[in-house]
UniProtKB/TrEMBL annotation:
Compartments reported by the entry: Cell membrane
Name under which the protein is recorded: Glycosyltransferase family 39 protein
EC numbers for this chain: 2.4.-.-
Keyword list, A-Z: Cell membrane, Glycosyltransferase, Membrane, Transferase, Transmembrane, Transmembrane helix
Pfam families the record matches: PMT_2
Membrane disposition: Multi-pass membrane protein
InterPro entries recorded: LipidA_mod_glycosyltrf_83, RgtA/B/C-like
PANTHER family: MANNOSYLTRANSFERASE YKCB-RELATED (PTHR33908), UNDECAPRENYL PHOSPHATE-ALPHA-4-AMINO-4-DEOXY-L-ARABINOSE ARABINOSYL TRANSFERASE (PTHR33908:SF3)
Regions crossing the membrane: 65-84, 105-128, 140-158, 170-187, 199-222, 234-253, 293-310, 317-337, 343-362, 374-394
Sequence ranges assigned to domain Glycosyltransferase RgtA/B/C/D-like in this UniProt record: 107-250
Coiled coil: none
């Protein structure tokens, strides 16, 4: 045991502890409310699978790995006698409005995502460390470069936030990191490279149809071996990846048409548009990366230069990683719909580029020794710039404004009165109020309610950008002309509660 502990690099352990420390508090954020739009449905599907005793999710917007993780956790809880309600431990009222009856169960599922995020950081560390070691970079620089590359993910607010949800993006990042680590082992002809590549690509397909994860593996074999042996090894990788994909998404064998239809429906969704999250994808994603972890964008530019200034293993590694980064970013950029979470499976590859390229440009010799130290110090500082934002995520994800809005309604609105709630609003007891739910209040401009709740994630999309959403913004202004603002809460995303300007005949205005 002591011998094994001695083999653990203290820098790698420090990165893992940092990643865990930033993410652990977030697994309880907002509970028992669940405000992520995808998480409640994902959990419900996984619990239904466990209840029905099947590995087929019978829904294929995403492939099945995440659902199987949830189903496995459900079976584990039930196996030790902890009840998990068959309805999915979730009561879903509207988009982004749900309530869990099983906090411990949801926390346990989220913890799996946190562990996947920590493992992703360690895979990036291992890939960078071993490449530099094989390329002959001095020991101290190789260790520092690996630790800084892994730290860019550990402190990334985007990666940190998405680790705390039962959604596939964090597992997509893990799969990409595993594929790239396997590819770097193939380049060095190290053991288990074929196995890691097959598992990584199979998981990437099984978690989010990430076909681009196969490209760096193909390139790694292409630049390493062109003989018959290399072709046979690549065929074994393909077979393993296909087997993993079938295990995670058995519907591809039993219901292939349904799987293809689900994939096509998601592709159509991303091409047709999503109100408030569409247009200008290239600039949007570049800005999101710049805000999240600016070092990664700069490192990508450095890596492009390093392609022409390095050779050997370093150059081949950069070619392999770019074989994923470029196609994946182009795929995101051509889509009409854009969500920043789509960058989570891209950031491990950018981190590997940063760790491999930056130290390789300045050899540790002669008069450049001082320059190298200055560059290393600057890189370390830049890598940790986002840590403050990551450490401050809890209040934003906790969305206390929802709790405050619900408390205001409970205090000022009598029971059994109609209450209209937009998506991403507070959870209200459906047994106490006559709830009117809609995605956007602009969908029902004539709504009549004792209280109308507007949210930043719904109404705010249009009111913040009236130039691009003139019609919807005008509808919201008309609605707010019939209601008056009674309360506003900003502990998280803002939520506003409106009441009628003229109270119903024979009743008292809410809140008076």
């Amino acid at each position: 045991m002591r011998k094994a502990l001695r083999r653990i690099d203290p820098l790698a352990a420090a990165v893992a502890v940092l990643a865990l420390a930033l993410r652990a508090p977030l697994v309880v954020a907002a509970l028992p409310g669940v405000g992520n739009s995808d998480e409640p449905l994902n959990i419900s599907v996984g619990v239904r699978m466990a209840t029905d005793g099947t590995l087929d999710a019978h829904t294929y917007r995403y492939p099945g790995l995440l659902y199987e993780v949830i189903a496995g956790m459900t079976a584990a809880f039930r196996g030790v006698g902890i009840r998990v309600p068959a309805h999915g431990a979730m009561r879903i009222e509207n988009l982004g409005v749900a309530h869990t009856d099983s906090r411990a169960f949801v926390v346990a599922i989220r913890c799996v995502g946190v562990l996947a995020a920590v493992a992703t950081c360690l895979l990036v560390w291992a890939a960078v460390r071993e490449v530099h070691k094989a390329a002959g970079l001095p020991e101290r620089w190789g260790r520092v470069a690996a630790a800084v590359a892994a730290a860019t993910l550990a402190v990334s607010p985007l990666a940190t936030a998405n680790s705390a949800y039962a959604t596939p993006d964090v597992f997509g990042g893990l799969a990409v990191a595993l594929s790239l680590y396997g590819a770097t082992r193939v380049l060095r002809d190290a053991r288990y490279g074929d196995l890691l590549c097959g598992l990584g690509v199979g998981i990437a397909l099984g978690v989010k149809y990430l076909v681009a994860a196969a490209l760096p593996v193909l390139v790694a074999y292409a630049v390493s071996s062109r003989d018959r042996k290399g072709i046979i090894r690549l065929a074994k990788v393909a077979a393993l990846a296909a087997a993993v994909f079938v295990l995670t998404t058995p519907g591809i064998v039993t219901h292939p048409i349904a799987v293809i239809s689900g994939l096509r429906a998601e592709a159509v969704h991303y091409q047709d548009g999503h109100v408030g999250a569409q247009g200008g994808a290239p600039g949007y994603y570049l800005n999101a990366l710049l805000r999240d972890q600016p070092l990664l964008l700069g490192a990508a530019a450095v890596a492009a230069v390093a392609l022409f200034r390095t050779d050997g293993l370093i150059r081949r590694t950069l070619i392999v990683v770019f074989a994923y980064v470029i196609p994946q970013f182009l795929l995101l950029a051509v889509m009409t719909v854009r969500f920043d979470r789509n960058l989570v499976p891209l950031t491990p590859a950018l981190a590997v580029l940063a760790g491999v390229a930056v130290p390789a440009l300045l050899p540790d010799t002669g008069r450049r020794h001082t320059s190298r130290r200055a560059l290393a110090a600057l890189t370390v500082v830049a890598a940790f710039v986002p840590v403050v934002s990551a450490a401050g995520l809890y209040p934003r994800l906790d969305e206390h404004s929802r709790v405050q809005a619900a408390a205001w309604v409970a205090k000022h609105v009598p029971g059994h009165e109609p209450v209209a709630v937009e998506s991403y609003g507070p959870w209200l007891d459906p047994d106490r109020y006559r709830l009117v739910s809609f995605t956007f209040a602009a969908d029902k401009p004539a709504v009549q309610a004792r209280a109308l709740i507007l949210t930043e994630h719904a109404a705010g999309r249009f009111l913040a950008d009236p130039a691009h959403h003139a019609r919807e913004a005008a509808v919201y202004r008309a609605i707010m002309g019939r209601y008056r603002l009674a309360a506003r809460f900003t502990a998280g995303s803002w939520i506003e509660v409106f009441v009628p300007r003229e109270p119903p005949a024979g009743s008292r205005a809410a809140g008076r």
